[in-house]
Amino acid sequence: xxxxTQTPRYLIKTRGQQVTLSCSPISGHRSVxxxxxxxxxxxxxxxxxxxxxxxxKGNFPGRxxxxxxxxxxxxxxxxxxxxGDSALYLCASSLQGALDEQYFGPGTRLTVT
Amino acid sequence: xxxVEQHPSTLSxxxxxxxxxxxxxxxxxxxxxxxxxxxxxxxxxxxxxIRSNVGEKKDQRIAVTLNKTAKHFSLHITETQPEDSAVxxxxxxxxxxxxxxxxxxxxxxxxxxxxx
Lengths: 113, 116
Known about the structure:
The complex is a heterodimer of chains A (113) and B (116).
Chain A: E1 5-7, E2 10-13, E3 19-24, E4 31-38, E5 42-50, E6 53-57, E7 64-68, E8 74-78, E9 87-94, E10 103-104, E11 108-112
Parallel strand pairs in A: 2-11
Antiparallel strand pairs in A: 1-3, 3-8, 4-5, 4-9, 5-6, 7-8, 9-10, 9-11
Chain B: E1 4-7, E2 10-14, E3 19-25, E4 30-38, E5 45-51, E6 56-59, E7 62-67, E8 72-77, E9 86-95, E10 101-106, E11 110-115
Parallel strand pairs in B: 2-11
Antiparallel strand pairs in B: 1-3, 3-8, 4-5, 4-9, 6-7, 7-8, 9-10, 9-11
């Protein structure tokens, strides 16, 4: 069974631009969560989607948004990029949530210049 | 909210020795505690997990223990090998009513180096 895939793997953007990252969960998994990883703050939760609905949200500004499609694939968008948004963005999928294990993808490395 | 503390931040051991990483959590409602291994350039890999109704779980050279009273849990790696070198993260998750998966709260990580 294929794991969680994320595209693109690397991205360089300029301040003020916007970016869209994509995540394909493990086949059969319906819950997708997004995390931001930085050396200073570690791994921080952004949001979780289940059945095309945002079910849980972390403490990030409204510039960070996401969505999930009917095939469970998910995208996250960051608008008006800031230098501090440079990070590894990780997607994790699980069967339904609640008591299920989460499996992470390889991440998208975003650099904002 | 939940807070997870992880110690030590770095750990260096000789090949064949044991390694222990400890985490404490703050919210007694947390009920799921996974451990992840992250190698350079890769996403975190789930290596073992434990739920609040279990005190200990083993998988070959890896074991996790949970003390709910003290609100701490530990990862034990025996007979360490150079390929065990990586950053290890502990996490805790609250169960939210209604089926929603509470998000994982991660510790800051432990960089484990196994010297041959």
